[in-house]
Amino acid sequence: METMMKSLIFGLSANPPTGDGGHYTIVKYFAQSGMFDEILVVPVYTHMFQEKRGKVMVDYEKRVEMCKLCFLDASTQQCKVRISLVEQQVFQKKLREGGAGSGSGSPPGEAVKVGTADVVDHLVQDNPGVDYGFVVGTDTYRDLCNLKWRRAKELLDLLHFQVVERKGLPSPAEIPVQRLPARVDFHTLHELKEISSTSCRSSSDECEVRKVVKSNVVDYIVSNRLYGFTEDKKHHQMNRNRKSVLIFASIGIVSAFIFGMWRSKKIATTKH
Known about the structure:
The chain is elongated and about 105 Å long. The longest helix has 44 residues. The relative contact order is 0.13. It has 10 helices and 6 strands. The protein has 2 domains: 219 residues, Rossmann fold (3-Layer(aba) Sandwich), CATH 3.40.50.620; 33 residues. By secondary structure, the chain is an alpha/beta fold. Strands 3-2-1-4-5-6 form a 6-stranded parallel β-sheet, with helices on both faces.
């Protein structure tokens, strides 16, 4: 009997993706675990909650690029890490099928929502010979097993869940829930730190961000001025430029004054 390919879905906002001790550590751990043939890193295309769309997430294309910079080097000979655009593909498919809130006066796409079940449907339909796993944290695992997700029962039966324990929370294996997944593994990653994408976005200190986000990702963020600390850097540079202009202007004024005094003195000496 032919062995099914095993693929692990790792979804995230990637706004930005964190490095050692964060998202990168999780992807690298599973890539090296020998459990999967590929890791699908799936950046969220658009927020499920309409009120948050466009307010907290930078452009999708830029988040995809940050994922490439962050995760692709985690691939091993046995496990390929790929950046998947499946959420964008599902969104556009729904849009074509008329899920744009037509007749409501809403802008195209505003009413379209893409959930985990939609993504899994698309992947399974396109790749029927693949066995899919799904990475979740402790809090997400609890919500899913308490059936708070849309089509939660189907997902619990279909996917092989990989639960990463979160510091400060009870072990997910001990959490009372309504329904358990058909297949689930629990993982404790001691390398994980208490870092978040939110703190990176709100930081005003580039040096602090570089401690939790890979340097090549931070370089990309800075060059595209994606978050607050890059604006602070921009303003700092502008202030430096203004100071330089003032210094050179002052030097010019002083030089002109000295030259004027010297010339006046020379003319006076010549007359005498």
